[in-house]
UniProtKB/TrEMBL annotation:
InterPro entries reported in the protein's UniProt record: MazG-like_dom, NTP-PPase_MazG-like_C, NTP-PPase_MazG-like_N, NTP_PyrPHydrolase_MazG
Protein name according to UniProt: ATP diphosphatase
Domain annotation NTP pyrophosphohydrolase MazG-like: ranges: 36-109
Gene Ontology biological-process annotations: dATP catabolic process; dGTP catabolic process; dTTP catabolic process; dUTP catabolic process; response to stress; TTP catabolic process; UTP catabolic process
A Pfam family matched in the record: MazG
GO-annotated molecular function: nucleoside triphosphate diphosphatase activity
Upper classification of the organism: Bacteria, Pseudomonadati, Pseudomonadota, Alphaproteobacteria, Sphingomonadales
Length: 260
């Protein structure tokens, strides 16, 4: 069987597309790649997107390039699965996003000004949603988004149609209200619901403050992991066996050393 992988004259993207076609070819392709579908690949797509974010946070251009390649492979994989089913192709994907970018930037590709675009942004988005049929203001916010990110997007969508606090006092007071409801909850089911409401309220407060809740928590996770590792180093490699007071002393010392 001859290979479908093109030689050097082809563009890098064409080569990648041909590689994926070969991997998905029932006649001599890869058994694992052939067995995949949208659902089985979706978790990998999410994972690769996070790995891009990690590489960006690390500030290593080579790592960013590598991870973007892995993410591009996910797009190519999904497009080939779709092509095999007769749904759409990679070119259709590229064509659709190109049209969307031109449509959303009429000040660059059309005859309007940047100020006009700012004024008409919701009109543009509404027209896109209308083309997909009747949908509410919250439609299109992906269920698979991380919970904090999805909460902030839902709140932002609601705010665009006027369902929002006029200032930061409302969402700040809402946190206190939800915290009291958590304390008053008398069952696991009630606590589950009330903690969810509390987290939603905290995200809304972050949004009103102009803080990206997902990014803020990600940074807090990194900070905690860094400080905990420093605590372990101070304790000789492990905190096991230390009293809570001793562990707290290490924690305070690590925080002080970071601020010095």
């Amino acid at each position: 069987m001859s290979s479908d992988v093109p030689g050097p004259p082809s563009s890098p993207v064409d080569r990648l597309l041909a590689i994926m076609r070969q991997l998905r070819n029932p006649d001599g392709g890869c058994e694992w790649d052939l067995a995949q579908d949208f659902d089985t690949i979706a978790p990998y797509t999410i994972e690769e997107a996070y790995e891009v974010a990690d590489a960006i946070a690390g500030g290593d251009p080579d790592a960013i390039c590598d991870e973007l390649g892995d993410l591009l492979l996910q797009v190519v994989f999904h497009a080939q699965i779709a092509a095999d089913k007769g749904l759409f192709t990679f070119d259709d994907v590229a064509r659709a996003i190109s049209a969307k970018m031109e449509r959303r930037h009429p000040h660059i590709f059309g005859g309007v000004t940047a100020a006009d675009v700012r004024d008409q942004w919701e009109v543009i988005k509404a027209a896109e949603r209308a083309a997909d049929g009747p949908r509410g203001a919250l439609a299109g916010v992906a269920m698979s988004l991380p919970a904090l990110l999805r909460a902030q997007k839902l709140q932002g969508r609601a705010a665009r149609v006027g369902f929002d606090w006029p200032d930061t006092k409302g969402p700040r007071d809402k946190i206190a209200e939800e915290l009291a409801e958590v304390a008053a909850a008398d069952s696991n089911a009630a606590r589950h619901e009330e903690v969810g409401d509390l987290l939603f309220a905290v995200v809304n407060y972050a949004r009103k403050l102009g803080v990206d809740a997902e990014g803020a928590l990600r940074d807090a996770n990194v900070k905690f992991a860094r400080r905990f590792a420093a605590m372990e180093d101070r304790a000789g490699g492990s905190l096991q066996g230390l009293t809570l007071d001793a562990q707290e002393a290490h924690w305070v010392a690590v925080k002080k050393s970071e601020r010095a």
